[in-house]
Amino acid sequence: MSDREAIYAVIRRIPHGKVATYGQIAALAGLPRRARLVGKALRETPDGLDIPWQRVINAGGRVSPRGGLGVEEGFQRHLLEEEGVVFSASGRIDLERFGWDPEARPRGRGKVARAKGPGSE
Predict the structure, then answer these.
(1) N or C: which end of the chain has fewer CB within 10 A?
(2) Quick one: pLDDT at residue 68?
(3) In whole angstroms, what is the distance from residue 45 CA to residue 86 CA?
(4) How far apart are CA 83 and CA 110, in angstroms?
(5) How many CA atoms lie within 13 A of 75 on its CB side?
(6) What are the pLDDT digits (tens) for 89-109?
């Protein structure tokens, strides 16, 4: 699997209503410290490739600026808000609340539970 295929495979796993950072995607794809490569792969995504690109944000919890008029950033924010992701007044997403935890297991009606360690109840 190529680096790009690994990146796209990880992005496809981000659930509706959750976000992940460029660095997190890189690490999960086996490419630690290659966050910029994730950005490049997203910029150069082939037409017709269906991935939830809008769920990838920067480490500060913000939609990354792309230059230009800001239309793309506004569209990304709109898509995330449609999924229930909430932005603060300063344009940040609370990563504690909306950040994707790939170790979490779905439980029941869309609820997420973390795996419990030995001796925990």
Answers:
(1) C
(2) 72
(3) 26
(4) 14
(5) 7
(6) 999 999 999 999 999 876 655
Are 56 and 20 within 8 A, CB to CB? yes
Q: Quick: pLDDT tens for 76-88.
A: 999 999 999 999 9
Residue 47: what are its φ and ψ, rounded to 5°? Answer: -55, 140
pTM over 0.70: yes
Instruction: Give CA 85 to chain center in angstroms.
Output: 11
Q: What is the C-alpha separation between 121 and 117, in angstroms, rounded?
A: 9
CB 63 within 8 A of CB 91: yes
User: Domain spanning 3-113 has what CATH number?
Assistant: 1.10.10.10
Neighbours of 12 (CB within 10 A): 12
